[in-house]
Amino acid sequence: MNRETLLEEVHAPAYAKPIELYAFIDPLCPTCWALQPMLRRLQVEYERYFTLRIALRTTLPKINGLCFNKKEDPKASEKSHPSFPSLAIKAAEFQGKRAGFRFLSKLYEYTFLKSRDVSSLSVLIEIAEKMELDVNEFVLDFSSHNVMRSLQVDLYLANEMEVCDAPTFVFFNENIEDEGLKVDGLYSYEIYEQILEELIGQRITPNIPPTLEELFCRFDSFATKEIAEIYRISEKAAERELKKQLLQQNVERLPFQEMTIWRKKVN
To answer: What residue intervals traverse the membrane (predicted)?
Structure first.
C-alpha cells in the first residue's frame, strides 16, 4: 500500500497536517451511516491534525453508458440505477467538498430515516433542491463524464489501498514511504482517537467545539445524541440547549421512530 506513485497520479502530495485520513464509504450501507457521527466528531475535535478525504467504495453493476443523451432532460427523467447515489455525491462535490459531505448526510437521512428510494434520479434532485445546490449545475454534472471519472478514481484508490469493504479508514503519516494503517469496520470513537495519537506520536487534545449556530452552519443536521457527544454533555442537557435554538427559530425538530433530528431552519 505504498502511496508515492499513487498520489502522484491522483493529486499533488502537498499537506500541512501530519495525518491524511481516507474514509471509504458506501452510500447505501447502514454501517457507514452509523460511522458518520463519529467522523463528524473527529472533524470538530481533531481536524487540525488530519486532512480528510471521503472516497466511495461501492459494489456497482456495470456503469458504462449511464450518461444521458444530450437531447434528454435528466431533470424530468424517472430513471433509477444502483450507481445513481454515488454519482450524485460526486456531482454535489463539484460544488464544493462541504457540499458533497452534506449531500451524503442528507442522502443517509432519506435512505434510513425517510425510507426514500435514493437510487431514483428524481429523489436525488429533490435532495439537491433541499440543500439549495445549483440544481441545473447538479443535473449537468451528474450526467457528465467528469463525474464518472471522479467515481472511477475513488474505485482505483480503493483497489490500490487494498480496501475491500466499507466503511474503511486508511491513515497515512508524514513519511510518504510508509504504508497506510487500514482500519476496517466500525469501532468506538476512542479507538480512532488512539490511532491518531499513536500515529502523531504525542498526546492530542480536542478543539473547543464551535457554537451550536456555527455547528449547524457546517453540518446542517444532527441527532440529540450526536450533539451530546460533541459537547461532552448529557443528552438531557443537549436537548435543553437544542430547545433554546428551537425557540429562537434557528433549528427545526424532526421526530422519527427511534430518534430526533435537529436541522438548521431555512428562512
So the answer is: none
Helix (H, G, I), strand (E, B) or coil at 1: coil
Parent domain of 225 = 212-264
**Model confidence, pTM:** 0.83
How confident is the model over 14-33, as pLDDT tens digits? 446 899 999 999 999 999 99
H or E, element range at 46: helix 30-46
Cβ atoms of 36 and 43 within 8 Å: the answer is no
CA 54 distance to own-chain centroid: 6
Nearest to 82 by CA among 64, 58, 100: 58
Q: Which residue, of 177, 200, 223, is where some domain finishes? A: 200
Which CATH number is 126's domain given?
3.40.30.10
DSSP calls for 217-252? HHH-EEEHHHHHHHHT--HHHHHHHHHHHHHTTSEE
Q: Which residues contact 82 (CB under 8 A, 6 or more apart)?
A: 28, 60, 61, 119
Q: Which residues contact 29 (CB under 8 A, 6 or more apart)?
A: 166, 167
